[in-house]
Amino acid sequence: MAEKIKLLSAVLGNEQVPAHLARGVIEERLRSAIIDGRLPPGTAVRQQELATLFGVSRMPVREALRQLEAQGLLQVVMHKGAVVAPLIGEDAVDSYALRVLLESEALRQSIPLLEATDIALARSYIEQLENQTGHAEIGRLNRLLHMSLYCKAHNQKLLRLIDGELNEEERFLRFHLSAMGLGKLTQDDHNALVDAASDKRVDDAVEILAEHLNKGARTIRRYLDAQQSS
Asked: What residue intervals traverse the membrane (predicted)?
């Protein structure tokens, strides 16, 4: 167990965490390590080892692991407990189909109410994405960009659902960039989307968004088909 704690310490850090902050800190440390690949798929994530590492009880660790499981980053495996989920799975294509439905509706609701400051914020995220190569930061900026365009949608539950899907998207972006041999994403789709939103061209913006998301779905489908045939 000491060796496992040592390995976890190298990945997650080992400073003691105040009890009232433990759940959030542990969740964020694990989430970052999973998204950027320091904890690869299949890695066992055990409650007691984490509790020992951070000097807390198992309760906040259990809560953090539940949150990560809900985000699709961990899965519970018989006789192993929580493990880091596969980087890409069969349900990923379905997730993209769901995103097209949810995000198209949010965009329709939001665009008529977007102000110049919202558009400027979206463009600032694109500018940062142009110069970013770190997978975790690309994922964060991509999520913020999309949410900045949906922010004026009146259906708050819809926005919460989308935010959850975009959190899962952060991990796919690492797969996408690695699979395509790219250091960063092209911003052509994002620029076209923001231009359409700025001009209040709702139907054009929805069409651009749908094609943007469907590109991701096609990349996943090709990968899964290649895995099945190999």
From this structure: none
- Which CATH code of 3.40.630.30, 3.30.2380.10, 1.10.10.10, 3.10.20.310 fits the domain covering 2-84? 1.10.10.10
What is the dotted CATH code of the domain comprising 92-229?
A: 1.20.120.530
Whether the pTM exceeds 0.85: the reply is no
Convert the pLDDT of each residue in 185-214 to its tens digit.
Answer: 689 999 999 999 999 999 999 999 999 999
Q: DSSP 3-state helix, strand, coil percentages of the chain (rounded to 5)?
A: 70, 5, 25
Pick from 30-34, 40-44, 63-67, 77-81 the range whose average pLDDT is largest.
Answer: 63-67
Cβ proximity of 129 and 187 under 8 Å: yes
